[in-house]
Amino acid sequence: MTDNIIELRDVTYYYEGSKVPSLDNVSLGIRRGARTVILGANGAGKSTLFYHFNGVAEPAKGTVLFDGQPIKYKRRKLRELRSRIAVVLQNPDDQIFGQTVEADIAYGPSNIDLPKEEVDARVEEALFLTGLTELRDKNTLKLSYGQRKRLALAGALAMRPEVLVLDEPTAGLDPQMAQDFMELAERLHHDGTDVIISTHDVDLAYTWAEDIHVLREGTLVYSGDPDGFYGDDRCVLTSGVMQPSIFAINRGYCAMRGIDEAPRPRTEAQFVSKVSEGPRGMLTIVPVDAGAALQMPEIPDGVRVGVFGTDAKALGRSMGRTPDFMFGGFDACATDCLRGHDSVLLCDRGCLEMVSGKVALLGHFGPGIESRVLRAP
C-alpha cells in the first residue's frame, strides 16, 4: 500500500481559452492519515488542484493517482472515484440540489443505488454531525449562508468518503461557526477520514496542518512540515501569505528571552503552557454519549465548563447550566488550568482519546496540566 492516498506527477492544466497554465508541472503527494493543508493566496491554483483530486479536471500533461492507481476518466470510474473522494466547494450554492435539507443530503447516497434504509441512516448521521437535524424540512433557498455551508458538508458526509476535501471551509463564516467547522473536521480525521483543506488563512493552516503544500501562481513552491515553510521568511513573503500570529508571537518571545524557538506552539494553550509559571488547575474530563441524559457533576463556584464534540454541544445546549465555552472548549479549559484554575470539559466519548492526546501534548511545551476522567452518572 502506498503512503500517499493522492499523488500528482508533473501535472499541468489550462482553462479553456487560456495560454497560461493554472497548474504548472505540479508534483505532490497527499500522505495517508496526515492532516493536510493546501496553502496559497487567492488565485494560486488551490481550487484547480482540488478539481484534479476527484477527476472534475483532467490534466493537459501529467498523471493523477488515487490509492496508487492512475485516475481513469470514464464515467463509471469517475462515479466510483467520487463516492470515495468528496469535495466541499467554497461556494455551497454550487453543490446544493435538493428542495429541502433532508432531500439534498439524500441526493448523493440515493444516486449510488444504496438501499433506502442505508440512505436514511446516512442522512440522520449527517444531519446530527452538522447540527441540521431541526432544519431537515426547511427549504434550502431559505437557509442562511452558514447553514448552506453546513448543508454542503452534510451532503459530502452522507457519502461516507475515504477522503474529504474542504475548499476554504471557513470563508464567510463567523469565528464561532468557523471553530465549530474545524472541530468537526478534526473529529472526522480522528475517526479515519483523510481530510484535506485549502485556505489562505495562515492561522488556520498552522493550527491544523501536519503537512502543507504551498502554491504560488499555479506552481508548487513548498511541500513539507509547516515550521519549515513559516521559518523561511523569504519563502513566506514571495508566496503572498503571512506568518501565523502564534508563530510570530513565539518568535518574538523567544528572542526576548534568548531561548530556542522550538518547540513551536500551534495553539494559544500550547503557548501559555510554554510561558506560564506557577500552580496549575485540574482539568476534569466528562465523556458523554449522544441522546444520553447528562447529570452534571457538582461544580464549585468559579469553575468554568467547556464542551468539545458534536454530542457534547447538543447536551450542553440542553442542560441546566449553560457551558462557559461552547466553541474552542478544549483550548479555553486548558488555558484556565494553565493559569491556575480548575475547569470541566464535556467531550464526546469518541473524542476522549483525542482530548487525552491534547492534554499530553501540552507537556511537550512546558509543565502541562493534570487531568482526570470522570464518568458521568
Characterise the protein shown here.
- This protein starts with a strand and ends with a strand.
- The relative contact order is 0.11.
- The chain has helices at residues 46-53, 75-84, 101-110, 116-129, 145-157, 175-190, 202-208, 226-230, 233-238, 245-257, 268-275, 310-318, 329-338, 352-362, and strands spanning 4-13, 23-31, 36-39, 61-66, 69-70, 85-88, 163-167, 194-199, 211-216, 219-224, 282-288, 304-308, 343-348, 370-373.
- The protein contains 14 helices and 14 strands.
- A 6-stranded mixed beta sheet has the order 6-7-8-3-9-10, with helices on both faces. A 4-stranded antiparallel beta sheet has the order 2-1-4-5, with helices on one face.
- Helix 3 crosses helix 4 (116-129), helix 3 packs parallel to helix 5 and helix 11 runs parallel beside helix 13 (329-338).
- It is α/β, with parallel strands linked by helices and 377 residues long.
Q: Which parts are unreliable, with pLDDT below 50 for 5 consecutive residues or more?
A: none
Shape: globular
User: How big is the Rg?
Assistant: 22 Å
Structural class: alpha/beta
Approximate helicity band: 25-40%
N-to-C SSE series? EEEHEEHEHHHEHEHEEHHHHEEHHEHE
* Main sheet record: 6 strands, mixed
The count of helical stretches stands at 14
| Widest β-sheet, arrangement of strands | 6-7-8-3-9-10
Q: How much beta, percentage-wise?
A: 15-25%
Distance between the terminal alpha carbons, to the nearest Å? 44 Å
Return the average pLDDT rounded to an integer: 92
Q: Say how many strands there are.
A: 14
